[in-house]
Specification:
Blueprint lengths: L4 E12 L2 E12 L3 E5 L6 H8 L7 E6 L2 E2 L4 H7 E4 L11 H11 L4 H14 L15 H12 L6 E5 L7 H16 L3 E6 L2 H7 L2 E6 L2 E6 L1 H8 L4 H9 L4 H8 L1
Parallel strand pairs: 3-8, 3-9, 6-7, 7-8
Antiparallel strand pairs: 1-2, 1-4, 4-5, 9-10
The structure holds adenosine-5'-triphosphate (ATP) and magnesium ion.
Length: 254
């Protein structure tokens, strides 16, 4: 067992009645890696993040984060991870600053450090001038940025981001991507889901391609392109997920 493995998933399964949302998946994420989960709508990406962050119990299989079991040690995991959900978990009726302070309290950041930490994040995320504005009055991009900032308030070792740049304009998305690549430089392990293949190609060391709850491929963007003989990750993705007729011919030829 590699001691630098931060996320370890084996045979992980989630069933909702008849629906097999996640179907016996296996993967590992190493310390400091930025790992992307790609897949069409309904593939099971959010369900996987929810199981890894204690929001949903696996039906079967095993998962650990930072060497701790998601079923029995979730409270200890939560202290050391940051989560940016699909829909923001911040409060519309609180200011940007108060949202960060609230999250800092929740995560047990010592009271003497809360304001300074919040100020620092507001500066990094270029929201300092608006620190006293209510979250509810923020634009979509500003909301997303503050949600990511809030997930970092307790200096997590792993950050989970569910579609971080969805709905953002080109400039806002780019700036958020830069912030995410800075996290990688700081040695933070990042697990993200995205529909933007170019984004995954830019940010991720490795990606898993998921469809109908199953992992179809896990590799670096470069090798996925090489293996499928495609120039872009988008074309490789289309081929691997079978969203391209050509894949049928390949499978038959095997
Ligand atoms: N709470 C739930 N109850 C019943 N079914 C659910 C629930 N959550 C997810 N599902 C089902 O599980 C499957 C996977 O959903 P999930 O949200 O994980 O997909 P996703 O890959 O995140 O998709 P998207 O790209 O649209 O966000 C879907 O068929 C969905 O309907
Ligand atoms: Mg989702």
């Amino acid at each position: 067992m590699n001691k630098d493995t931060v996320i370890r998933v084996s045979d992980l399964t989630k069933r909702y009645g008849e629906i097999l949302a996640v179907n016996r998946i296996d993967f590992e994420v190493e310390k400091g890696e930025t790992f992307g989960f790609l897949g069409p709508n309904g593939a099971g990406k959010t369900t996987t993040i929810r199981m890894l962050t204690g929001l949903s119990k696996p039906t079967d299989g095993k998962a650990s984060v930072l060497g701790l079991d998601v079923n029995s040690e979730i409270a200890r995991i939560k202290k050391r991870i940051g989560v940016v959900p699909e829909i923001s978990n911040l409060y519309d009726e609180l200011s940007a600053m108060d949202n960060l302070i609230f999250m800092a309290q929740l995560y047990g950041v010592p009271s003497s450090e809360r304001v300074q930490k919040a100020e620092e994040l507001l500066r990094t995320f270029r929201l300092h001038e608006r620190k006293d504005s209510l979250f509810g009055t923020f634009s979509r991009g500003m909301k997303r940025a503050l949600t990511v900032a809030a997930a970092l308030i307790h200096d997590p070792e792993v950050l989970f981001l569910d579609e971080p740049t969805v709905g953002l304009d080109v400039v806002a998305a780019r700036s958020l991507r830069n912030l995410i690549s800075n996290l990688r430089r700081q040695g933070i392990t990042v697990f993200l889901t995205t529909h933007y293949l170019e984004e995954a190609d830019l940010l991720c060391d490795r990606v898993a391609i998921l469809a109908k709850g199953r992992i179809l491929a896990i590799d670096t963007p470069l090798s996925l392109k090489a293996k499928t003989d495609k120039k872009s990750l988008e074309e490789a993705f289309m081929k691997l997920t079978g969203l391209e007729p050509e894949v049928l011919a390949i499978e038959k030829g095997k």
